[in-house]
Protein 1
Amino acid sequence: MANRRNILIGTGAAAVVAAAGAGWYFLGGRTETASAVEGALPAPAPGAQFDVARLMAPAGDVKDHPLGANDARVVMIEYLSPTCPHCKAFALDVYPQIKAEYIDTNKIQFIPRPFMRNVLDAVVFMLAEAAGEAKYHDVLDTFFKTQAQWAASDKPADAMFIVAQQLGFTRESYDAALTNQTLYQGLEKLRDQALNEFKLQGTPTFYVNGKMLDGEKSLEALRAEIDPLLA
């Protein structure tokens, strides 16, 4: 992975890499249930409570893409990283059941929120935004499903473009998506807010009606948090 510092993801990614500076590498290592992040402040107490209104006001110009009812009694926010193996495990193994039980039935509103640990994450998030609201979640889902193909590749530039082509991107639209410096800066602001205001330690991190749940969670663990709030 060391040679990622010298890789450009296509000509259009030059703006992303320039904005990232020396950030073309993975930030932090992995823990048992979460991917750690660089710059995290001391951990809050387990189950720390945060103001829901503040959590619903993401910093910067990056807008949320919520799923489920806007008036749901329970709001679950997940800070996720496309390169995080634990986020992938949640997305593929747990989220489908959460969607069926709680989101599709309008019992909760679910907000997947970007957390950029590295430039590969930035590329995925920028492609998702460029794809538009109707395909935003499909882009994230596809990159999670193919994570093994691109996140550990010696040539992530080529590997990520192949995935993007499956989603309908051409070389021109792919490169254009990665020149949005305003969006990149917004992703940085989201990351800084998560670290400094919401005390995020790693990905994934969930906030259920403001209660912080860090690390990979099973379906049963999330049910135990959600169901009492719906009673």
Note: The chain has a mean pLDDT of 86.
Protein 2
Amino acid sequence: MEISQILENMNFIRESFGERTLRSFDLKRIGELSFSFYWEYNCEYGVVTAFSEEAGLKLDYLEVKSFTSLLPYRWNKVCGALTGAFWVFALTLEPSEFKTAVERLVDFHNETPLPLFKPPQMARLPKAPARSILCRNSIINWCKATGISPRSRERNFRCAAITADVALKCGQIVRELSPVG
């Protein structure tokens, strides 16, 4: 998926839902919550629900689920942690900041050896860059680089930890680009 398509989706979200504000939030708590919420449903849910609970983002995940099929471009193959962050950006940043926010988050996700977040249950997860925003490719790249099976418990923890990493980076970017938080 091209950045231009992500931006078109974000503009469509903004036009449909309007601007939402965030209250001041604890960045560490955003990471912890997103990690925890990943296990309840999925990575996109983890990011959206963490911002809803900790930062007061008025967005229910059921709205996200039901609206996703209406987006100009389907992003069902894109890492859900990223799409969750794209929702946060679309609702809270000025549209003129969307491209900067998306590019910074995608670069972080693709180029940084992840995960950085250390789950208490598995603090020694190996790190490797995702090299792709696509979920499957990201997992395969990490598994090849680390020698860990895609069906392993470690891989599950990797995805949960990357959900936290993306939520944390999203929160940092929102703080830098908007007066909130």
Note: The two ends are 30 Å apart (CA to CA).
Protein 3
Amino acid sequence: MYVIYHGTGRSIVGSLATKIHINGFNHNQVNQLLDDNGIYNLYSIERQAIGRLVFLGIDENKNQVFLLNTASAETIIIPALLSVFELHKVDKKNVYLVDTTPIVDSYFVLGNLFMGISFLRSVGVRLLTAGARRQHSKIISILDRTRIMTANKN
């Protein structure tokens, strides 16, 4: 099965969720990933995934886990991506899309913006950390739903 976390790239939610997913859905890992180095790493992964499907690993159920940031072109990129799977004769039941956009709030948007400005990076790190802590329960909810939907579906 292919699991694709997607969003607009204005936050670190997608990369945070994929890291937790690949590491066995360990909910306690959220705090470990939110130190300064972890935030920089998550931000870097998000930047790499803008307009690209980035393979991040294989989970415990042998599902392939990807990250895709669509920027502002979500309505174009998602159908295009699904058509590629269709062309390669991959059953749609084997593709699970996880939308991380509903979790994004102003903390994430501002934090992401400030991460791109070198002298404001420390403020960006604090905002992204605060956003992830504020939305912790929603992130866990998405991960729990994903775990149920992808368990042993290969």
Note: The mean pLDDT is 90.
Protein 4
Amino acid sequence: MTQLATAAATKPQGKTLAYGFVIPNYNHHLVITDTIKALVVFGLPIILVDDGSNEETQQVLAAIDSDFHQVTLIRRAQNGGKGAAVQTGLAAAYQAGWSHALQVDADGQHDLNDVDRMLKLSLAQPQALLSGQPIYDDSISKGRYYGRFITHFWVYIETLSMDIKDSMCGFRVYPLAAYHQLTQSSRLGNKMDFDIEVMVKLHWQGVPMHFIKTKVLYPEDGISHFNVFDDNVLISLMHTRLFFGMLWRLPKIIYRKLMCRKTSGQPKVSN
């Protein structure tokens, strides 16, 4: 177990914090083994969710489950979408007693060199949701790049703030108690809408959010399950629901913003 992993199990203020990784996987058999090898060095448990993958991927995941004792493999009988797979993993993590889960996509897009930085920041801010704020290179398509700004615009409206720097990056640390509380009163999207929706709704719930800039790569031989038409329609419908959800919660959102300003504006008292 690494030094960081040991600290993550015992800090802070006598409270037990238990961290681990959640990885949704659908037919990403080419890079998933390398991803697992990069994560096991942290000495933390890993929940790997097979979202109804093909036989070739199932064989690779079975080998991973056999070779790495930190890995728990959960198989979904049918493909339900990225959001469904993540929710399966987060629910299992909560039931296992974890306090936090670091979601990592299986397609090799994320810079895992930033895992250490994310875990340390989470230890310092255990109540917060931490997320990557992508730094892109030339591998991102123009459509994907500019499409994100449309979502950013709507998220700013839905939260009446610019607190959420990026709502689409799947590289994030969830405080599981807050996430579990949300799932008891709200349904979440099962596909590409999940990452956005869960972040907006956790913001409505009052969960603080912090972001770290991180490199995101879209390799030429990478596998993307984003359907340009279907998923954009799905996300558009989600934004419509969130907009009207914001209107319903408007008094509460405004009250919280006013209280935050009042608290931050109070002078410090010295003894």
Note: The mean pLDDT is 87.
